[in-house]
Amino acid sequence: MTNGTVKDHMKRYDQIIIYFVCYTLIFIIFTTTLRYTIPFVLAFIFASVLSRLIRGISSKLKIDQKYIRLPIIILFFGIIGTLVTMLAIGIANQAVRFGVAVVNYFTDNGESIMFWFNEKYHWLISQIENLDPRLIESGNQMLNSALMSIRDISLSLGTAIGKFSVISITGIPSLLLVIIFTVVCTFLFTRLMIKEPHFLLKYLPIEKENKGRFIGILNEGKDMVIKYALSYLLVIFITGLISSFGYMLLGIPYALLLGLVTAFLDLLPILGVSAAYVPLGVYYFAHGNIVVPAGLIILWVIVAVGRNVWEPRIVASTLDMSPIITIMAIFIGLKLNGVLGMFYLMFMAVGFKVLQKVNVIDTFANNINDQTGGVE
């Protein structure tokens, strides 16, 4: 390995270290201050979308932007507010009913469930010869402890739902304040972005000769992330919508709540909607219902085939994220610090890929190609 190659590798390692440090600091500052800045963050995101939409409509219809700016913002928040309110009320209603049903079920059938598991455990042990009695007793204690924990968790679910309802009601004034500030700031940010899209550069320590390159990198990275995120969210929304309607047609209770869970599971690579359909199918099949599992198979075929049709058309750009990277980010992040850790690693991977796409961070593959002359 030549000195030039070593220097190239060191340069790439330096870039990765700088990115890791900067990203970590920004993430910590952002998450710790989000409770105070949430209206302005939401307003900035909404304004970024609305300013582009208003400019596009204005240029196509040859209408002055100031005449369509306010109606489009009102229409946008009207549609978003209506959909979010309806969805939140429906999900909250079903979540409460589901929680109450789980509590009642374990209260009424807890003893019989524990008896059934103990019976199956002792039957299994009876099929194994020459097993140490101490292992049998230890396994029995572990089983009973696990069942008691499950029962306690299920019974505490009712209390948690009650507390959540109280917190939600007491938090309504604060929520209304956030909504008001978000709407007002969205209007102000939109007006500012239409006049000067890169107004934030005034407050960044960037030299004039580097502003053009910085703007180019920022625009390309922003477009890549926004297009990918919105496109993928639309794909997941379609999957959740189809699943909810399918659950309703099959007579599965809590269809809206299960549709939301299915849409979330669709984020997981490889597993996808199967992680929701298979357990439901097994549950109904175990209870002697053949129609629901058959319907779920048909629903899975519809979603799987449909994804291959609409996903390439909707997802205009891709970050070429490896499924193993996504799985590692989710698992390791959850182990490190729960949901916050998952988002930390997910956004780190996405940001790193974006910076490689826009040639801010070099790839080691480029170095290998340089050494081999591009010959494989």
From TrEMBL:
One of its GO terms (cellular component) is membrane. It is found in: Membrane. Keywords: Membrane, Transmembrane, Transmembrane helix. It is a multi-pass membrane protein. The keyword Membrane applies. This is Sporulation integral membrane protein YtvI. The chain crosses the membrane at residues 12-30, 36-55, 67-92, 164-189, 229-250, 256-278, 290-310, 322-347. The lineage of its organism: Bacteria, Bacillati, Bacillota, Clostridia, Eubacteriales. It comes from Youngiibacter fragilis 232.1. InterPro entries: AI-2E-like. Belongs to the autoinducer-2 exporter (AI-2E) (TC 2.A.86) family. GO terms for biological process: transmembrane transport.
